[in-house]
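Hi C.,

You asked whether I'd gotten around to modeling the 164-residue construct. I have! Everything is below, sequence then structure, no commentary in between.
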Amino acid sequence: MTSTEAAAIALQDHAALWRAREISASDVVNAACDALVAGLDTPSLRVLAACTRAEADYDVHDLLTPALEELGLTFHPAASEAGREAAVRALARRMLAGELEPWELTFRINQRYGHELPLTARLAELDEEYAFLEHGDAEAVARLNAEVTAEARRLAAVQPSRSR
């Protein structure tokens, strides 16, 4: 994967996570800056990347959609199943990148989506298994962590869609 492809995926993930209220608007602006540095460049992306932290909370809402459209990336409606699935996949990629612990991934998924999405059912089950672990059972924790990691890899393998 080229750095521009990785930057596009990261920007789309940040958009999905922002829409799901998992990250701040300034995190989206930082991802836009990273995308520019990686070689993606459109007029709307430049404007988005130029937002200050103070402006981000107000301006990202209006600037993100055109920036993603110019890059051919999809920005799903927050309440849609596709939007929720995009956020789940983005969280899985964050866990695989070491930004979340496996138990944090399952906890967030179970709290936000539970068994509501077919995509999240296994992670919700694994979160419930974490809750029943005996304190100090390192072997069981390692087994669950491995299962969560495998599930996160499965989810992360589906690349974000690009609009056509």
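If it helps when you're writing up: The chain has two domains: 3-70, 81-156.

Thanks,
B.
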